[in-house]
Amino acid sequence: MIDRSLVGVLYGVSPIGLGHASRAAAVGSVLAQRGVEVTFATGGPAVPFLKSYGFNVVEAIAEPNPHVFGGKVVLSSLWYIRYWVGYRASKKRMAALADQLRPDLIVGDEEFSGLSLASERGWKCAMIADELDLAFARTYVTRRIESSVRSWYSSLQAKVSLLIVPDCGRDTGNVRYVGPVVRPVTRSREEALKGVGLPPEKRLILVSLSGSGIGSYLAERAVKAIRDMKRENCVTAVVGGDDPRHNEDMVHYLGFVRDQQDLIGASDLVIALAGKSTIDEASSSGTPIIAIPIRNHFEQEKNAARLGYSYSDIDRLAELIPSNLGRRLDPKNYDGAARAADELVALIGSPEP
């Protein structure tokens, strides 16, 4: 075990959505069990989310959500500019925080200001990233901007002490593939459903928005398709976004649910955007999922394609829902959180770079 009084980790987390924060909570919990003192730096809804697990959290990171209209990413060039402005401000706050804490290791889950700072100062640092390339650009101007960003991103990947990819793959150089990182299911199906006021005797269709609320258009289409099916033995729950907790015609709008992995494990079908965290939590539990990507969001489109889906499948929900409902798969029971923590603890104990 590591002495908590001697070892500290400053852990930056992208506040875009809650996928990065949920992954950080899984890894952070294992690190805490192993005696590592973790301080998270993030922003927006990720701050109270991580605090709810009992972590020390500092609001220091400003990252804008992509512009999404009608299910499509637009104005990527403007998003890149806004992101860069936020990055520079975040880096100043991370520098002040690092000077105060003097951590033994800086970690960044797709939060790059702390990693850039660490590489400049010659400190140990570990990047956690789903994608090692960028491909948002759709116009000439955006491609020019993205070309510069890609060069910077590639250089940063080469400079970090360790690059953890929460997926399956072959390790090379400083890159370590640890498998999907998910939060463990902590409640039985009956406990999870009763905890949010849902009847455990009925089949559950879970419609999941992103942590930032993007995806309301998908929820509307999914709810309409489910209602048209008129299945009396099913209940629908919509989670995510800012919808108040209310019910209407067998559709329960639950708003934010912290331990969504428990509901995913208890569901007979999940309908969601193609964010990696939701897909991985469903796969870990063996729950069937219909993953509809945001158009022009290259990461989500790739995630969805791996499952055989594309944005056009939003028009096939009436067909896809009954064909997937209740068709559970063998649970994967991913242990990526423990493997990621192993890599970080080993890096903490390695010689200085």
Quick synopsis:
The chain is of the alpha/beta class and 353 residues long. It contains twelve helices and 15 strands. It has two domains: 8-181 and 335-348, Glycogen Phosphorylase B (Rossmann fold); 189-324, Glycogen Phosphorylase B (Rossmann fold), CATH 3.40.50.2000.
Written account of the structure:
It is a single chain. The protein is built from twelve helices and 15 strands. By secondary structure, the protein is an alpha/beta fold. It has two domains: 8-181 and 335-348, Glycogen Phosphorylase B (Rossmann fold, 3-Layer(aba) Sandwich); 189-324, 3-Layer(aba) Sandwich (Rossmann fold). Strand 14, helix 9 and strand 15 (289-292) form a beta-alpha-beta unit. The longest helix is centred in the first third of the chain and has 26 residues, at 76-101.
Give structural attributes.
353 residues; alpha/beta; Rossmann fold; 2 domains; seven-stranded parallel beta sheet; six-stranded mixed beta sheet; 12 helices; 15 strands; globular; disordered N terminus
State the secondary-structure class: alpha/beta
Q: How large is the count of helical segments? A: 12
Radius of gyration: 20 Å
> Separation of termini?
23 Å
Second CATH tier, the architecture of the largest domain: 3-Layer(aba) Sandwich
Uncertain spans? 1-6
Number of domains: 2
Spatial order of the strands in the main sheet? 3-2-1-6-7-8-9
How are the secondary structure elements laid out?
Blueprint: E1 8-13, H1 19-33, E2 37-42, H2 46-51, E3 56-59, E4 67-69, E5 72-74, H3 76-101, E6 105-109, H4 113-121, E7 125-128, H5 140-159, E8 162-165, E9 175-177, H6 189-195, E10 203-208, H7 216-229, E11 234-239, E12 246-248, E13 251-255, H8 260-266, E14 269-273, H9 276-285, E15 289-292, H10 298-306, H11 317-324, H12 336-348
Parallel strand pairs: 1-2, 1-6, 2-3, 6-7, 7-8, 8-9, 10-11, 10-14, 11-13, 14-15
Antiparallel strand pairs: 4-5, 12-13
Helix pairs in contact: 1-12, 3-4, 6-8, 7-11
